[in-house]
Amino acid sequence: MEFTFNAFYTLIAAVIVLLLGRFLVNNIEFLKKYNIPEPVAGGLVAAVISLLVHNLWGYSITTSSELQTSFMLIFFASIGLSANFAKLREGGIGLVIFLVCVASFIVVQNFVGMSLATLLGIDPLIGLIAGSITLTGGHGTAGAWGEILEVEHGIQGALALGMASATFGLIIGGLIGGPLARLLIKKYALATARADLQDKDHNQHTAEQEGQEFVPFEYPHQVRLITADNAITTLGMFAACLAFAEFMTGFSKGTWFELPTFVWTLGGGVILRNVLEGVFKVSIFDRAIDVFGNASLSLYLAMALLSLKLWQLADLAGPLVVILGAQTITMALYAAFVTFRVMGKNYDAAVLSAGHCGFGMGATPTAVANMQAITNMYGPSHKAFLIVPLCGAFFVDLINATVIQMILKFVA
């Protein structure tokens, strides 16, 4: 028997999941150490409970898809609204080169996933899910594409597969980045470990300040002071982004430039932000965007995980482990032999390689954490803390969406 939660019950359940996740992350060192998001921690527990209830008594629940989709779109709008072209230009040629590395790896990541899926006798699109959709894209992108693959391409359990793969990537991205960078630094004698604890504390503070400046999503728990006026103005911008996305989704349907709604939402945010700032000289209040964006992502993930049907994944567990293991090896080799060398084969390049492992397998906060682990030990890397957050928080989503869309046009 299946129960359907309306919008109110869905929101209540999502908040309960978030509170559970917060309790787990605050009290389990493993979850805290590897930056597992609270909605993922609580949501996976809820999904396991749902599995037990289904297997024992045959009950399952479905959450409000309309409310869930709305929160997802608000999150992607917040990414777009955070993209300030004036800051993006500061990245210079290094940012462009790094973007080429990232774009190339997205293609490699999907090739590995889809090739292995074909060899293992499962749908190649499952390999795409265990590729850049979830590993480079993270939980937010996994949820967005999971819904599309389930509805439009008939991949049962795509959302559950996506969340499982994204969680795996988040953990692995935090595990391999630091050790890889330390290995490169020692092998090529790029820097000496700093023994002065005061210097290490100072470097950590500097890194956090730089990361915070360019990545508003890096510190979701930091206090943000906003007013009612700021909140109302920001909500109006979100509404404009969603309205633009709805119009463009319908307008582009069946054309060569057809894109998923969440990509149009992100693009709408980029356009709106930079037109308001560059043309009309309007001051954008980033703290309000940050608050609404993080809250929307947390609620969306909680709702998505609440409705996971893990029993649909039993037959895919083995192949998924094989694909994700291969993706881990591919990421480490690419960062060591491509990213590191292309970015200059120096200390900054080693730190950038750690960052690439972080968001290539997990998320931007994981990338920043990887880099801080290195800079705390060996000293600051201003170049890395400028490039990685800019790329990981904004450009990578646009590049990833474009690559995935092209693949789906040829494969699906």
From TrEMBL:
InterPro entries per record: GltS
Chief localisation class: membrane
Membrane topology of the entry: Multi-pass membrane protein
GO biological process: L-glutamate transmembrane transport
Alphabetical UniProt keywords: Amino-acid transport, Cell inner membrane, Cell membrane, Ion transport, Membrane, Sodium, Sodium transport, Symport, Transmembrane, Transmembrane helix, Transport
Domain of life: Bacteria
Entry GO CC: plasma membrane
Any one Gene Ontology molecular-function term assigned to this protein's record: glutamate:sodium symporter activity
Subcellular locations according to the entry: Cell inner membrane
Transmembrane segments: 6-25, 37-57, 69-86, 93-112, 159-185, 231-251, 257-276, 288-311, 317-337, 384-408
UniProt xrefs under HAMAP family: GltS (MF_02062)
UniProt function note: Catalyzes the sodium-dependent transport of glutamate.
NCBIfam families cross-referenced by the UniProt entry: gltS (TIGR00210)
Recorded family membership: Belongs to the glutamate:Na(+) symporter (ESS) (TC 2.A.27) family.
Protein name listed in UniProt: Sodium/glutamate symporter
Gene for this chain: gltS
